Amino acid sequence: MDIVLNRILGNPYVLGGVALLFLSLLATTLYYRGNSIAAEAESARLTEQNRSLIATNAQNARNVERLLDQADISNKLQAELAEKLKEVAAATEDARRTIKEIRSNDPKADEYLGTDIPDSLLSVVNRPARH
User: Fold this and answer.
1) Residue 26 to residue 13: CA distance in whole angstroms
2) Region of poorest pLDDT, from 6-15, 32-41, 79-88
3) 113 within 8 A of 99, measured Cβ to Cβ
4) How would you class 116 by CB atoms within 10 Å of its CB: exposed for 0-12, middle for 13-18, buried for 19 or more?
5) For 103, which of 38, 51, 110, 125 could close a Cys bridge (C-beta 3.0–4.6 Å)?
6) Rg (Cα) of the chain, in Å, rounded?
7) Which residues cross the membrane (predicted)?
């Protein structure tokens, strides 16, 4: 057995093959270790990116809630304005009807309402309302 072992260990090709085998194993181990380190780094990066996206999503959800609240307020204000506009339209129609009745029943009022507004008063009549 010693002779066989001496022959194997004394043969440079066998020693070279064994050394090549160990170097291959070492290279493979280092390759997989490098991939493992890269995977851990990628995992950490993706975890941080996920946290960032979750925070952004939460902020967007708050923004959507705020916009929905503003839309509700806007809808209520629009409804109130529509109601007030109906009231103004009804009051205007009532005033128009009343003036029509007065003009048909009182010739003097019809004559007065048929006259032109003096130029000195037109600037007041055509002036925008102040609020």
Assistant:
1) 20
2) 6-15
3) yes
4) exposed
5) 110
6) 47
7) 12-32
Residue 89 contacts residue 81 (beta carbons within 8 Å): no
Spatial distance between the Cα atoms of 27 and 20, rounded to a whole number of angstroms: 10
Q: Which two tokens stand for residue 70?
A: 């503003």
Coil/strand/helix, residue 15 = helix
pLDDT tens sequence across 4-27: 667 777 777 877 888 899 999 999
The two three-digit tokens of residue 113, written as one number? 């309402």
Element housing 118 (H / E): none
DSSP secondary structure string for all residues of 66-77: HHHHHHHHHHHH
3-state helix, strand, coil in the chain (%, to 5): 90, 0, 10
Predicted TM-score of the model (pTM): 0.50
Contacts of 79 (CB under 8 A, 6+ apart): none
Q: Which pLDDT score, from 0 to 100, does residue 1 have?
A: 61
| Residue 45, amino acid | R
Tokens of 45: 């990066």
